[in-house]
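Inverse folding, one chain.
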């Protein structure tokens, strides 16, 4: 979370806290990419380019959805409401998140960013009942974040498998937008040639682990780069 004043969620502190529904998710208005979990590939790929980025420190890969053609550009938050039909899960979890209680802990706690427009005590969904019990709304939010955490573990297994089989290749995309050359650098895509050259055994392993569907969704999503170009051209007009 990039918001200030992030606190552990506590019924004694946040007993009257409410969360308003978000319309255009302003908290990501300066983000041109956000993390995805593998379970989102099918829906996300119908709207965004789904690519991979590499962590320079540890060499691991993370799948992300591209929201813009340049760093700091989000083409989906320009209007009063979100400019698309799907919102990635990590965006919808705001202003809450599930984090480890300590560095090496297996226990998790809910944190909340209170310094933003959606958190208040007058309007929206309550987090706690008057007697201090969690509301059904909070319970569902926690369940969604727990599922996301579980899916994140599967996503790390997925990207590790791609890396171990040397299937990810760095690509630089160059786009011509009304004479302006735009380069998208530092992204990784699945190498279709190497995918097709896998042994029957390795290919079957990907299928058995349920990884072929996300791979093909990712590859098909590259057609959505044109959608970003169209949105940028429309907004410029």
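Residues assigned per position:
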């Amino acid at each position: 979370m990039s918001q200030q004043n992030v606190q552990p969620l506590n019924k004694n502190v946040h007993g009257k806290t409410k969360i308003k529904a978000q319309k255009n998710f302003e908290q990501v208005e300066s983000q041109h990419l956000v993390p995805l979990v593998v379970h989102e590939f099918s829906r996300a790929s119908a709207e965004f380019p789904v690519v991979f980025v590499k962590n320079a420190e540890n060499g691991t890969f993370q799948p992300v959805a591209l929201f813009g053609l340049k760093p700091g550009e989000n083409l989906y938050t320009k209007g009063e409401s979100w400019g698309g039909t799907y919102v990635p899960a990590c965006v919808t979890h705001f202003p809450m998140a599930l984090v480890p209680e300590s560095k090496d802990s297996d226990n998790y706690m809910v944190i909340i960013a209170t310094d933003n427009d959606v958190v208040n005590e007058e309007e929206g969904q309550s987090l706690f009942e008057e007697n201090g019990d969690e509301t059904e709304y909070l319970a569902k939010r926690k369940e969604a974040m727990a599922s996301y955490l579980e899916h994140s573990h599967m996503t790390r297994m997925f990207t590790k498998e791609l890396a171990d089989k040397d299937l990810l290749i760095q690509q630089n995309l160059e786009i011509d937008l009304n004479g302006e050359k735009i380069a998208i650098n530092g992204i990784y895509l699945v190498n279709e040639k190497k995918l097709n050259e896998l042994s029957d055994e390795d290919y079957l392993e990907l299928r058995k682990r349920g990884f072929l569907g996300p791979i093909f969704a990712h590859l098909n999503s590259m057609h959505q780069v044109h959608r970003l170009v169209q949105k940028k051209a429309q907004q410029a007009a």
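The chain has a mean pLDDT of 93. The longest helix spans residues 136-164.
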